[in-house]
Amino acid sequence: MKPDARYIVFRDAKIEDVPAIVEINIRTWQSAYKGIFPDAFLEALPDRKQDRIQATIADFGTRMVEGRIERKVVAEVNGTIVGYASYGACREVEVYGLSNVGEIYALYIYDDYQGYGLGRGLVSYAAEKLKRLEGDASLLIWALERNPYRGFYEKLEGEARFTKQFTLLDVKYEEVGYFYERIERLYD
């Protein structure tokens, strides 16, 4: 059932939101990356949940990326956190010759809440904060090439401009970097 817009809130994450954020991350990885990452790896994610919660709490609000603090925004529906995004300085500035660019590092929403504008809302919130607080003019979002939800970034009119690889359990995976030249186009 579509969430009632009157009960959808996008806000800065608080330290007490960390357990919900970690749970969203685990469950969305298990559903989105099934058949892409090894089943044993995905099934073991909950085993490390408490360690991830403690580590995230330990560096909450202080984790630095390229000299800037990593920030998080959550999406709440009826008071329950159902999605989040983390964002901050672009990590690939020097590699790709970029300047004045922010990045969304992670964007995850429970399956039952996808398709209702929450992803767009999270991107919009993060983009506006990056522009207002950091002065970023452009935005970069990386997505796994085999991510079944890559079309979302294309609907936002991101240009698939960059590629890179990362390794997980000795297997290389391709990522696609979606570039948004004018960050303000992503605001609501």
How would you sum up the major sheet?
7 strands, mixed
Structural category is alpha+beta
If helices are DSSP runs of H or I spanning 4 or more residues, what is the number of helices? 6
- Report the uncertain regions: none
Name the shape in a single word: globular
Relevant CATH superfamily: Gcn5-related N-acetyltransferase (GNAT)
Radius of gyration: 16 Å
CATH topology-level name: Aminopeptidase
Estimate percent helicity: 25-40%
Counted up, domains total: 1
- CA-to-CA gap between the ends? 23 Å
> How big a fraction of the residues is strand?
25-35%
Helix-strand sequence? EHHHEEEEHEHEHEE
Number of E strands: 9
What is the mean predicted local confidence, pLDDT?
A: 94
> What CATH first level would be assigned?
Alpha Beta
- Name given to the CATH architecture: 3-Layer(aba) Sandwich
**Taking strands numbered 1, 2, ... along the chain, how are they ordered across the largest sheet?**
1-4-5-6-7-9-8
